[in-house]
Design brief:
Elements lengths: L1 H23 L36 E7 L7 E2 L4 H12 L11 H16 L18 H4 L14 H6 L18 E3 L2 E3 L3 E3 L9 H15 L4 E6 L5 E6 L3 E8 L15 E4 L10 E7 L4 E5 L4 H13 L8 E2 L1 E2 L5 E2 L6 E5 L3 H13 L13 E6 L5 E4 L23 E8 L11 E3 L15 H11 L10 H11 L1 E3 L5 E6 L13 E3 L7 E9 L25 E6 L10 E5 L2 E5 L7 E5 L4 E6 L5 E6 L6 E5 L1
Parallel strand pairs: 1-8, 24-30
Antiparallel strand pairs: 1-2, 3-4, 5-8, 6-7, 9-10, 10-11, 11-21, 12-15, 13-14, 15-16, 16-23, 17-22, 18-21, 18-23, 19-20, 19-22, 24-27, 25-26, 25-28, 28-29
Helix pairs in contact: 2-3, 9-10
Length: 623
C-alpha cells in the first residue's frame, strides 16, 4: 500500500500539469479554426505514449531584455517565460482564453507583468542611466533621476516601464494602454521590439519570431556524448538554449536603435521600399547616433521630389530662402540655402510612411511628422551647425517642446540626398561631435590643422577668410561628414531614448564648392507636433490656439455611397491619400478657403469638391 501511495504522489502532479497545460499553452493543431500553432516534443517513434507531453513555444528560450536604445542587455530571464506566464495566470487569472485575440496593448501588459514580476530578477533593468557626457551632479537629475522609484513596486523593470506622469507624453493611444496591476498600484507597460525595430503587436507574431530565432541559432535537438572512466561512451539528448533579444520601450516613448560598434549592420526586412531591395542601416557613429540607410529610396523617387519642389507655386511651400525658428518666417544670415515643403505629394507621403516604419512605428500618424523639407544649395551656400530639436527654455511658445517630460519635439531626422557631389565638391552634412569613420583615432586632425591644409590647397579661395563658411569647410575635413550622392539617406537622432535632448547631434550643411546640391529632410516627432489635435501645451497656455489660423479637418468615407467605393483625396491637384470604402479617415491641418478634391481611383474623375469654411476650427467631412 505504501508503495502505491508513493507512485501516486509521483504521477498525480504530472497528470494535473498535463491536464491544465492546454489552458495556458495549447498543443500544435491543424484545426482550421485555430490560429495559434505550437510545437510538441519529439518522441521516440518506437514508443507511442497515450498522452504526449506538451510544451509552450517558449521552452528552452532565454530572453535577453534590453532597455530602449541600449545594445547590452540589462537582464536575462532566469525563470522560464512559460512558467512565468503560468504563475501569473494562477495568481491573477489574467491570461485570455484565446491568446491570438489579444490587442497589442493587452500583449504589452501581459509581457511587462510576466517579465517584471516573475521572469527577471526584481533588481534587473531599472531606470536608465545618464550617458557618459553628462557629468557630476547632473547625472542624478538627468531625465527622471537615478533615484526614481514608484512606491509599492519592488520590480525595477516595472519602474523602468512607467516613467511617471511627469515624464510620460500623452500620445493619441494613451487611453488604450492596459496597466499592470501590482497590489494597489497600477503602472504603465512597456512595448516590445526586435533589434531591428519591429514592434510585437500580436502573440502569434512573438511566437513566430521566437521560432525563427530557434531555427537560425541551432538545430532543434542534438546528441551530446561523453566518455566515462570505464571507457564507456554515454550519450544523452539535449535541446540547446536559444537567446531571444527583446527591446523594452517605456510607455509614451518611441523605439530607438541600439548600435554597439561602428560598421554594425541592421537589416530591416519588414520594410520593403519601391525598389524591393531590402533596407539596411549601417552604423556611422555611436554618439551621435548616425546611420547610413541603404536602399531607403530610389532615383525615380528622388527626381519626383525635386520636380515637385520646382513646380510648387504656393507662397508657403515653394522654394525660397531658408528660414529658421519655431514659428514664423525668420531669415538667418548663417543659413544661405533655399528650401520648400512637400507635405501632400504622393511621393512625399510614401517616403514619410516608409520613414516611420523604419523607425519602429507600427502605424502611420501624420501629426508625428513635418512636411518633407526640400533644400537647394548653390555654390558657397551652407547652413551653420545647429540642432533640429527646438529649444524653448522659457516656454514662451504655446506648444510644450520639453520632450523629456510631457512635451513633444523633433526626435529623429532622415536626410535624403538627391544629387551627386564628388570628393572636394563640398556640400557634406557634418556632425561636429562625430569623427570620420575611416580615420584611425591617432590620425584625427583638429580644425586648425584642417584650416591650414585647405588654405594651402586653395580650397576656400572663394570664401572670406575666417568666415563661418570657411571654418565649416575645415570642420567638414576634420569631423564626421556625409558626402551626398543621389538616393542616399542618413538617419540621426535628436533625442535620447528618454526624451532628453541629444546635444551630440549638432550638425550643419557644408558650403558647396562646386556644382549644386539637392537634399530633403524629414523630421519625425516623439508625439503630435504643434497645431495638431492632442499636441501638448505649456502650463497656463492651454486656452490659447497654437494653429496660426489652421483648421483641423477630417475626411471620412462612410462606405454607404457606391460613387466613392474606390476614391482618393487630393489637396487641389496634389495627391493626399486613399479614401475608399473601408479606408481609415484622413485628418489634415488646412486653412479657410482651401480646396480639397475627391477623385476616382481608376480614371481620376472628380467626384466631389470641398471648400474649407471658417466657421469651425475642427471639421468633419463625410462622403
Amino acid at each position: 500500500m505504501g508503495t502505491l501511495v508513493k507512485i501516486l504522489i509521483l504521477i498525480i502532479p504530472f497528470l494535473i500539469g498535463w491536464a491544465i497545460s492546454d489552458l495556458v499553452f495549447p498543443a500544435q493543431t491543424n484545426d482550421a479554426n485555430t490560429n495559434t500553432k505550437f510545437t510538441t516534443l519529439k518522441t521516440n517513434p518506437s514508443v507511442t505514449p497515450s498522452a504526449p507531453p506538451k510544451i509552450s513555444p517558449f521552452a528552452n528560450i532565454q530572453f535577453d531584455i534590453h532597455r530602449n536604445g541600449e545594445a547590452t542587455p540589462c537582464g536575462h530571464t532566469t525563470f522560464s517565460l512559460s512558467d512565468a506566464l503560468t504563475k501569473l495566470n494562477n495568481e491573477e487569472g489574467d491570461l485570455p482564453d484565446n491568446l491570438d485575440s489579444m490587442s497589442k496593448y493587452k500583449l504589452d501588459q501581459l509581457l511587462t507583468a510576466t517579465i517584471g514580476k516573475h521572469a527577471l530578477p526584481l533588481t534587473s533593468c531599472g531606470v536608465e542611466k545618464a550617458p557618459p557626457e553628462i557629468k557630476g551632479k547632473m547625472r542624478l537629475t538627468w531625465g527622471r533621476g537615478e533615484n526614481y522609484h514608484i512606491d509599492g513596486i519592488d520590480s525595477e523593470f516595472l519602474t523602468y516601464c512607467d516613467m511617471g506622469e511627469e515624464h510620460t507624453p500623452l500620445l493619441p493611444d494613451h487611453g488604450q494602454l492596459v496597466e499592470v496591476m501590482t497590489g494597489n498600484v497600477n503602472t504603465y507597460p512597456c512595448n516590445f521590439h526586435t533589434r531591428e525595430g519591429l514592434r510585437f503587436t500580436s502573440y502569434q507574431q512573438l511566437v513566430d519570431y521566437v521560432q525563427q530565432q530557434q531555427n537560425s541559432q541551432s538545430t532543434p535537438s542534438e546528441e551530446e556524448c561523453s566518455m566515462e572512466e570505464d571507457g564507456v561512451t554515454v550519450c544523452s539528448d539535449y535541446t540547446p538554449i536559444t537567446q531571444v533579444h527583446l527591446y523594452a520601450v517605456p510607455a509614451g516613448r518611441p523605439f530607438v536603435f541600439a548600435p554597439s560598434y561602428i560598421g554594425e549592420i541592421f537589416e530591416i526586412p519588414h520594410v520593403l521600399p519601391k525598389s524591393e531591395k531590402p533596407i539596411s542601416l549601417v552604423v556611422m557613429s555611436l554618439s551621435p547616433r548616425v546611420f547610413d540607410v541603404l536602399n531607403f529610396f530610389d532615383t525615380e523617387e528622388s527626381e519626383s521630389i525635386v520636380k515637385k519642389a520646382l513646380a510648387e507655386t504656393s507662397e508657403t511651400h515653394k522654394i525660397k530662402r531658408s528660414s529658421t525658428g519655431a514659428s514664423g518666417y525668420n531669415l538667418n544670415s548663417q543659413r544661405t540655402s533655399e528650401n520648400g515643403f512637400d507635405t501632400h505629394g504622393k511621393t512625399a507621403i510614401t517616403v514619410k510612411k516608409r520613414c516611420l516604419e523604419v523607425l519602429g512605428f507600427d502605424e502611420y500618424i501624420e501629426s508625428f511628422t513635418d512636411g518633407l523639407q526640400v533644400l537647394r544649395y548653390n555654390k558657397t551656400t551652407a547652413y551653420i551647425p545647429h540642432m533640429d530639436w527646438i529649444d524653448d527654455p522659457q516656454k514662451h511658445e504655446v506648444h510644450n517642446y520639453d520632450s523629456a517630460r510631457q512635451g513633444t519635439n523633433r526626435f529623429a531626422t532622415i536626410l535624403l540626398y538627391m544629387s551627386n557631389l564628388n570628393e572636394g565638391d563640398g556640400g557634406e552634412t557634418v556632425f561636429k561631435q562625430g569623427w570620420p569613420v575611416d580615420v584611425a583615432e591617432e590620425d584625427r586632425k583638429s580644425r586648425s590643422v584642417a584650416l591650414k591644409e585647405i588654405r594651402a590647397l586653395g580650397v576656400t579661395d572663394d570664401l572670406k577668410e575666417n568666415s563661418w563658411e570657411e571654418l565649416m569647410v575645415a570642420d567638414c575635413r576634420s569631423r564626421l561628414a556625409v558626402r551626398p550622392h543621389s538616393a542616399r539617406a542618413v538617419l540621426f537622432y535628436s533625442q535620447h531614448p528618454n526624451g532628453e535632448e541629444d546635444t551630440s547631434s549638432l550638425h550643419g550643411g557644408c558650403p558647396v564648392l562646386h556644382g549644386e546640391k539637392w537634399a530633403a529632410n524629414l523630421w519625425v516627432w516623439n508625439g503630435p507636433r504643434g497645431g495638431f489635435s492632442g499636441s501638448p501645451k505649456n502650463l497656463g497656455k492651454e486656452d490659447k490656439v497654437d494653429d496660426n489660423g489652421q483648421i483641423h479637418a477630417t475626411f471620412v468615407n462612410s462606405g454607404k455611397n457606391a460613387l466613392f467605393k474606390e476614391a482618393e483625396l487630393y489637396f487641389q491637384e496634389t495627391y493626399w491619400g486613399e479614401l475608399s470604402h473601408g479606408d481609415p479617415p484622413l485628418s489634415v491641418n488646412t486653412f479657410d478657403g482651401h480646396l480639397w478634391n475627391i477623385r476616382s481611383k481608376f480614371d481620376d474623375t472628380l467626384l466631389k469638391q470641398i471648400v474649407i469654411p471658417n466657421d469651425q476650427k475642427t471639421q468633419r467631412h463625410v462622403v
